[in-house]
Write a structure and sequence with these properties.
single chain; about 350 residues; alpha/beta; Rossmann fold; Helicase, Ruva Protein, domain 3; Arc Repressor Mutant, subunit A; 3 domains; 5-stranded parallel β-sheet; binds adenosine-5'-triphosphate
Length: about 350
Amino acid sequence: MSPAFEPDDVVSPVAASEAEIAFEGALRPRSLAEFVGQKKVRGQLQLLLDAAAIQQRTPDHILLAGPPGLGKTTLAMIVAQETDRPLRLTSGPAIQHAGDLAAVLSSLVPGEVLFIDEIHRMARSAEEMLYLAMEDFRIDIMVGKGAGATSIPLDLAPFTLVGATTRAGLLPNPLRDRFGFTAHLEFYETEELVRVIERAAQLLGVTIGAEALVEIASRSRGTPRIANRLLRRVRDYALVEGGDATLAVVQAALHLYDVDELGLDRLDRAVMTTILQRFDGGPVGLSTLAVSVGEEAETIESVVEPFLVRIGLLSRTPRGRVATKAGWAHFGVVRQSDALFGDDL
Ligand SMILES: Nc1ncnc2c1ncn2[C@@H]1O[C@H](COP(=O)(O)OP(=O)(O)OP(=O)(O)O)[C@@H](O)[C@H]1O
């Protein structure tokens, strides 16, 4: 099954190519003060870090939950920077065995911040090891097999775990409970994205007007990663055209990249038109929908749906996914049952 959705799609909120990772690195805010939006989470994190500093201990473990591209990695980096501690980055898929995690944990220096991205994708055996490590800064290493197996306890340096997940619901309770603080990152408001783009434009040396900023922000799916990426495309367009990033340039550039006024991309449109045309507006189950659009169910659930639900085009019901009235209206499709019986929407 070939995916309908590539990580480099212009409005894909998922992690991008090497070139984009370098581009993102240059734009990352370095402190909580520079981090735009998520006011509540910023306040809560600041308090947690200040309290730890006063007590001269490692800050509590932190879980960051939310859709991709909202700033989880950036916040983990900020936690390390603000507390002046080294940072180790790894991810759930890289931890396939308990031994992979033991190697990371046993090499941490005192106070280090360990960031595990996509923590819900870590191996089960490693999860169990992590419980003890988080609670007691200790792990048990099993040596040998069967009746002769023994466990050797190993003390760890105290560390702060920052876990990131797009699927908080998939984390087992014992793991979730061991985080001292869970932050739920929300999609950003347009005004917040305007500030993200304004800051990025300054760093990139792009001259951009107020209307153009709002236009990019309102097509960025509430996601800073997408806002920065659209700005990059607009900058390229302005460069080639030999002018500033005006509203007309933004509109032309985003039209070229097929980003509509709501910021919907190919996969969003594929999901919506499948529900509308193939399933007459739903309800349709997630796995059926995934097969119909040729995409992983997880991508649909964690990347596509949260935004479609947020902007009111789709609703999730116990019987399946259903297009809302606004969904029908946005795509200008007429419900087959209404067409048959001549009802108005
Ligand atoms: N609040 C913010 N203010 C300014 N820029 C931000 C903010 N949040 C994210 N960004 C920018 O958006 C980009 C993506 O952020 P980041 O990598 O932290 O997202 P993420 O949630 O970790 O995504 P993923 O789950 O895919 O790893 C970065 O370039 C970062 O600079």
